Amino acid sequence: MMTINDFPIQTYITVQWGDMDAFRHVNNVTYVKWGETARIEYFKSIDFFNSAPEEMEFAPILGFQSVKYIAPVVYPDIIKIGTITEEIKEDRFIMKSYFFSDTQNKLVAIQTHEIIVFDYKNHQKIPVPNTLKELIKKIEE
Q1: Euclidean distance between CA atoms 117 and 93, whole angstroms
Q2: Which residues pair with 20 in a beta bridge?
Q3: Helix, strand, coil shares of the chain as percentages rounded to 5?
Q4: Of the residues 6, 61, 101, 127, which has the maximum number of CB atoms within 10 A of its CB?
């Protein structure tokens, strides 16, 4: 069984009362926000997103995302998110974030992120640079 300890990058989110909706569980859009936070933490950990945008040679752009909801989450709780890069393609890479409920002690959602690498100087997507591939491989070992 997969646990948060299986992931090189872990992000902890405290569920807020305001994260819930009228149905008294965390609103589905909240998972997207949490996934964004986890994704940025991953990028920061590999030193991919630590500069001002105008100083970056290239940067990550979210091209696609989806969330598979497995179980509802309610306040109070702590969500532990484990993020990995699952696949590196020529012009994009696929990341996944696994959301674990501390209260329920189980996996409650999985988010898929398709990341495009964007060259801001030339205003176009570019192949995933080898330097970035190496940074990802290093953290995933």
Answers
A1: 9
A2: 26
A3: 25, 40, 30
A4: 101
| 64 pLDDT more than 70 | yes
Residues 83 and 119: their CA atoms lie apart, in Å, by 24
Distance CA 118, CA 78 (A): 33
- Would you call 134 helix, strand, or coil by DSSP? helix
DSSP string, 17-62: GGGB-TTSSB-HHHHHHHHHHHHHHHHHHTTSS-S-GGG-SEEEEE
| Distance (Å, whole) CA 45 – CA 15 | 23
What is the average pLDDT across 88-93? 97
- Domains, the chain, ranges and CATH? 4-140 (3.10.129.10)
* Angle, vertex CA 69, rays to CA 133 and CA 95, nearest 5: 0
Whole-angstrom Cα distance, residue 15 to residue 60?
Answer: 27
3-state secondary structure of 90: coil
pLDDT class for 53, splitting at 50, 70, 90? low
Which pLDDT value is given to residue 141? 82
